[in-house]
Amino acid sequence: MDQDKQRRFLIRELLQEDRRYQDIKVPAEEEEQKQLLRGLINIRPPKKISREFLAVQDEYLKTETAAKGITELDALQPVSDGLYLWQGDITALRCDGIVNAANSGMTGCYVPNHKCIDNCIHFFSGMQLRMDCAEMMREQGHEEETGKARITKAYNLPCRYILHTVGPIISGPLTKEDCDLLGQCYRSCLELAAENNLESLAFCCISTGEFHFPNDRAAQIAVGIVKEFMQKETSVKRVVFNVFKDLDKEIYRQLLGVC
Predict the structure, then answer these.
(1) How far is CA 42 from the centre of its chain?
(2) Which of 86, 89, 168 is CA-nearest to residue 123?
């Protein structure tokens, strides 16, 4: 099957799962099909699905990511020893591990076509990631605590692993506890990466989006924790500060002394 046939197959299979969708038709336009497919996957609870569906999904997602353009970490230039600043799509970065800014439920974002990093990572990784995370949470028996980190396979992403961490949610004035918890997110991810012998790790801007942590203070904490950790002898040799917004890029440029 080509991409068009794969996409239509996936949509039809998902629509047939739920009687509430019986009146929904597959759109004629490609972009509308993509939005419908992503939305259906976003809202689907973690439950079993056929091997055929997963096989087609995997082929489709890998082709979609390749079409976006995979960025090789080896092609990036460090701003200092082992530290990188990169503005781009973290789901298209080939490295050992990337960090997902997760919520306490740990099974991804259920808002259809939401632009948060949690939604993007879960969609382009594939349904297997949500099922893995759901199993972890069943075994754990409670929501994930802020500041800790968990590791999973990356499935259809070009990286090898995903490290999931729940950052602090800011609803009032920033406190020392908030800062300490964010610092612990970065520290937990680095320690977990080292425990699993990862050599490279890419961080998104944890908590600065939907969780409203001030961008400048978050970046200061991130750079400080990473620089401190990189003084240790571990497997982690390369760390990427991945940014999406121009604002964050400029903040990190100043903190890292990039001309």
Answers:
(1) 14
(2) 89
Which among 251, 252, 140, 247 is positioned nearest to 202, based on CA atoms?
Answer: 252
Specify the pLDDT at position 225: 98
Q: Using one digit for the tens of pLDDT, what is the confidence trace for 191-250?
A: 999 999 999 999 999 999 888 999 999 999 999 999 999 999 999 999 999 999 999 999
Q: Is the pTM of this model over 0.85?
A: yes
Q: Quick one: residue 102, left, alpha or beta (phi over 0 = left, psi -120 to 50 = alpha)?
A: beta
- Averaged over 113-139, what is the pLDDT? 97
Q: Locate tokens 């300490």: which residue? A: 180
Between the alpha carbon of residue 74 and those of residues 9, 134, 164, 191, 196, the distances in Å are 36, 33, 24, 23, 21
**Tokens 């382009």 label which residue?**
124
pLDDT tops 80 at residue 259: no
DSSP-based three-state secondary structure for 190: helix
Closest by CA position to 83, among listed 188, 222, 217: 222
3-state DSSP of 194-246: HHCCCCEEEECCCCCCCCCCCHHHHHHHHHHHHHHHCCCCCCCCEEEEEECCH
DSSP alpha helix (H) spans, 98-175: 117-125, 127-140
CA-CA distance, 222 to 188, in Å (whole number)?
A: 12
